[in-house]
Design the sequence.
């Protein structure tokens, strides 16, 4: 592979950067079974589609969850001879090489799990467990050296709790092997089990570069910004993001893996994304139920799949993630930090979405209450974003931007922007263009920017 620069953590420990110091906005798709279940033509279709939708990373697994050691790829390959990590199958890894290379050609970072967790701890999952503290470092060195010159992020863990021995020791050895093999050129994080953060398991590990949440597939009311804030407060300071939020079109789970009869929608996916990023995340991961597993028509039912993965590539939420990236990159992203006290009062009385719960009029904003309507605000030196998940009328305090501000309404569903006029920084009630839909109110210092926020005003 040609030599390609890696990514870095910014000097303040909050963001990811390209080697030239420009911000890297991590916008990933979840494609756990990509390397295991798709042939070359299908892989090209998947990657070019996601590239055209603005994704900057793809999360996938070298040793896949769904019987990835024993069930062969469409080309008839398995990763190891006789399930032995010391005997890698060159034909299998040549395919991985090709996919990683193609990602990089399309401007996509390969966010690679070296293995799913069931190969490290054979419960739950199909496994089998093939890694131990004694052999994990050698495998880590093998894949680290192999992708040393690719544009890669390594994701350790694979949806498992490290408290069961010898999971953590094995993962540590594998991580150290990767660091040896790639000469420490690539960032590394940890994919935790559902409703947990990597900080709960590996915060003290020296190999960890940034934190990852799996906020999971229950609780549509969840305010992700609260969880992001929890990890941002830890020492040492590290970037953090939601690496597995609710997947679009997956059943809403209640009490473990028990479907409630509802499905997560594009609106749910948007709320997790916008609240996380404006809550201080360095990026976000989107996921779709049928896409992560590459479900095909006629296959056995799993997690209530109801469409082919190619159709699911174009569900609304997938096409709407680019609007988040467009807005945050249209103003200096390196400056963007969460801020409190911006919304002085909120009126949220009418709500039609069946996934969402109680709405009330609060003045001032309480610490507790129906999470679903709580706005999230973030600001740079000369601008501020306020995400309104319910499109609620509100009063604002924008005085940090001066006595007068220029307002814009940004539509996270379509990526369009409408001028909202000029206002005193301490506002009276301001109504969004519509209610019962999410909106982003952009306030900026008078004269600070020549163009509107969003795609027309890219700043990097």
Sequence:
């Amino acid at each position: 592979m040609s030599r390609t620069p890696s990514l870095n953590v910014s000097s303040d420990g909050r963001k990811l950067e390209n080697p030239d110091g420009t911000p890297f906005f991590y916008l990933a798709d979840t494609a756990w079974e990509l390397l295991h279940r798709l042939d070359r033509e299908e892989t090209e279709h998947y990657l070019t589609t996601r590239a055209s939708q603005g994704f900057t990373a793809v999360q996938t697994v070298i040793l896949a969850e769904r019987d990835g050691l024993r069930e062969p790829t469409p080309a008839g390959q398995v990763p190891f001879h006789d399930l032995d990590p010391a005997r890698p199958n060159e034909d299998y890894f040549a395919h991985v090489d090709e996919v990683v290379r193609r990602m990089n050609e399309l401007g996509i970072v390969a966010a690679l799990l070296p293995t799913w967790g069931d190969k490290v701890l054979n419960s739950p999952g199909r496994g089998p467990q093939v890694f131990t503290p004694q052999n994990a470092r050698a495998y880590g060195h093998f894949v680290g050296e192999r992708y040393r010159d690719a544009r890669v992020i390594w994701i350790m863990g694979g949806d498992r709790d490290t408290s069961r021995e010898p999971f953590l020791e094995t993962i540590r050895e594998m991580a150290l092997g990767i660091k040896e093999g790639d000469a420490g050129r690539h960032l590394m994080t940890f994919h935790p089990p559902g409703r947990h953060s990597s900080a709960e398991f590996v915060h003290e590990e020296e190999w960890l570069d940034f934190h990852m949440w799996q906020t999971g597939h229950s609780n549509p009311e969840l305010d992700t910004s609260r969880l992001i804030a929890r990890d941002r407060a830890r020492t040492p300071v590290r970037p953090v993001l939601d690496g597995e939020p609710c997947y679009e079109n997956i059943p809403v789970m209640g009490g473990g893996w028990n479907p409630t009869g509802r499905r997560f929608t594009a609106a749910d996916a948007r709320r997790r994304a916008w609240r996380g990023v404006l809550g201080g995340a360095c990026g976000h991961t989107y996921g779709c139920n049928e896409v992560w597993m590459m479900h095909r028509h006629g296959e056995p039912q799993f997690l209530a799949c109801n469409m082919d993965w190619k159709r699911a590539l174009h569900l609304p939420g997938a096409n709407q993630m680019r609007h988040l990236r467009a807005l945050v990159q249209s103003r200096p992203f390196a400056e963007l930090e969460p801020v409190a006290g911006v919304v002085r009062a909120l009126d949220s009385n009418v709500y039609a979405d069946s996934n969402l719960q109680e709405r009330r009029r609060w003045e001032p904003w309480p610490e507790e209450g129906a999470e679903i309507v709580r706005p999230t605000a973030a600001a740079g030196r000369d601008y501020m974003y306020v995400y309104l998940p319910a499109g609620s009328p509100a009063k604002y305090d924008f005085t940090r931007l001066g006595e007068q501000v220029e307002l814009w309404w940004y539509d996270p569903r379509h990526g369009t922007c409408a001028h909202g006029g000029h206002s005193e920084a301490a506002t009276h009630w301001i109504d969004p263009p519509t209610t019962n839909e999410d909106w982003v109110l952009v306030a900026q210092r008078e004269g600070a920017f020549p163009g509107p926020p969003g795609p027309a005003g890219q700043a990097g």
